[in-house]
Amino acid sequence: MSRLRVIIGGTVLAVLAAAVPIAVMVYATWDRAVSVEQQRLHAIAERSLRRTEVSYQEALAALKSAEATVLPACGAEHIQRMQTLVMTTPSSDQMGYFEGGKLRCTSWGPFLRDVDQPTPDHVTSDGVGITVDVRPEAAGRRPMLSIMYGSYDVLVDPRRFVDVIVDPDVRLALASPDGRLLTQQDGMDPTLLQKLLREPGEGLDRDTLYASARSGEWLAIATAPRTALAATFRQQAWLFVPLGLLMAAAGAGLVIWLSRRRLSMRGELRIAIRRRELYLHYQPIIELDTGICVGAEALVRWQRPDGTQVRPDLFIPLAEEAGMIAAITDLVIENVVADMRELLAEDRSAHIAINLAAEDISSGRALKVISQRMAGSGILPQQIWLEATEHGFLDIDRARTMLAAARRAGHSVAIDDFGVGYSSLQYLQQLPLDALKIDKSFIDAIGTESATSPVTPHIIGMARELGLWVVAEGVETEAQLAYLHSQHVQFGQGWLFSRPLPRDEFIAFHRKRQQQYGAAREHMQNPRSVPFEREQAGEE
What's the DSSP call for residue 164? Predict the structure, then answer.
């Protein structure tokens, strides 16, 4: 990548780094405003429930008192008693006495017309019947709520149940727990109200913010227009937007700093390759059934003269962009042969995996370098395992040719970091492969609720169907190891077994594992216990 492209890319990223935090903070401000308003509506709905419960208990107390009265039915004393109860019960407008399913008298006096006792629309846990939309003549045919207990009922103006002091833009409704509407204030959206009666909750639709509260006997719904969010949004903005501006400034500054460092790092890397500041660590690969170390993945490291380490995820992409990756591949191959020739000659079942870049796959030159370096070293071709990520298979025709040549030469080939790209299945079907390495992100998801957790067994099953060996990357816990055992995964690597080791430490680790677990492997009696051995005859 040219210096101009780095500068342009850095500028674009700096703008994004400034814009994204501000956008995130604006969204967070809006989300917080919605949350605050929903909490306000929920509190109002809770107040409405409490008001309803008070009114209901007042009416129920009056009904129980009437039911306990022993007076001649509908006599003067009886009617006066009902009048007294109505006058001392703020929520009651009228009390009635029923006998034989007919209204005999009310707190207004004897009732001579033939009026049936109403059928309850809802029965509470107290055994109290509630009937909606009763229209008595004494109330001017205005809709009333009948609360019935025993032989008596009281009529209540349903508006009293939602008679709560709230902001002018808030509207309330009251229903039974099963969604039967008892009363509502004017101005509520009927479509939204019906939806909330079926599915109470909190939310925001195109025009209205809403919340609900529920008790054992009642359901209260509160709504407010979307415009009510404006004032709350402005209030919350004073908290969130300044933080977004600070984050934007920090993000833009970080991108500028990284861009400048990237520009300067290019020259450093070129010098580091020339001065051979790059070296290798070896990540052990463990045969899971036996526990022995069957080899390692060679990992390149860079230490500056001042002792500071540069992460591979920084300098490897830079080397690919700057055309220096071939030199790094050559250095890795040279060091693997120099470091491991004694161990690989001593243990023919061991192998070392070398990562190839996209350029190595496309050009095929890495095979010639490996062949030249191996000549006279005593290392067998099957002891060098070649790994490539999906990025290296962009030109799939060239990749197929190169990998087929590698396998004819005796090397085993694996696809690295499997599952993180978009065309993994395509590569498995079209390329000559021996193994796949499951990316660490899928191993981390084992035993979790992560969205990638169900994918892991499918990857393992797919590899098994295609006859590929499976290596699990990034194994860090015993639970992960137990799961991989249950899925019959053959190999694993990760910090549960060992961190990446310098040459001498890895050789000691390998020999110690051989002594500890070698006997277990002999008892396996598995003709393919050596990783990735293949019959060479008949392969393309």
Answer: -
Specify the DSSP class assigned to residue 184.
E
What is the pTM assigned to this prediction? 0.52
Integer distance in angstroms from the first to the last C-alpha of the chain?
37
State pLDDT tens for residues 331-377.
Answer: 999 999 999 999 999 999 999 999 998 888 888 889 999 999 999 99
H helix or E strand, kind and range, residue 102: strand 102-106
- Whether 420 and 439 have beta carbons less than 8 Å apart is answered as yes
d(C-alpha 351, C-alpha 297), whole Å: 9
What percent of the chain has pLDDT above 90?
A: 35
- C-alpha 473/C-alpha 529 separation (Å) is 19
pLDDT at 26: 72
Tokens 């004494």 found at: 138
Report, in angstroms and rounded to the nearest whole number, the Rg of the chain calculated over CA atoms.
Answer: 39
CA atoms in the 13 A half-sphere facing the CB of 198: 5
CA-CA-CA-CA torsion sign (418, 421, 423, 427) = negative
Residue partners of 387: CB distance under 8 A and separation at least 6: 297, 353, 354, 355, 356, 413, 414, 415, 416, 437
What gap in Å lies between CA 36 and CA 30, rounded to an integer?
Answer: 10
Q: How confident is the model at residue 456 (pLDDT cuts 50, 70, 90)?
A: confident
Is the confidence at residue 384, as pLDDT, over 80? yes
Residue 178 is which amino acid? D
Q: Quickly count helices (H) and strands (E) in the chain.
A: 14, 21
How far is Cα 47 from Cα 36, in angstroms, rounded to an integer?
Answer: 17
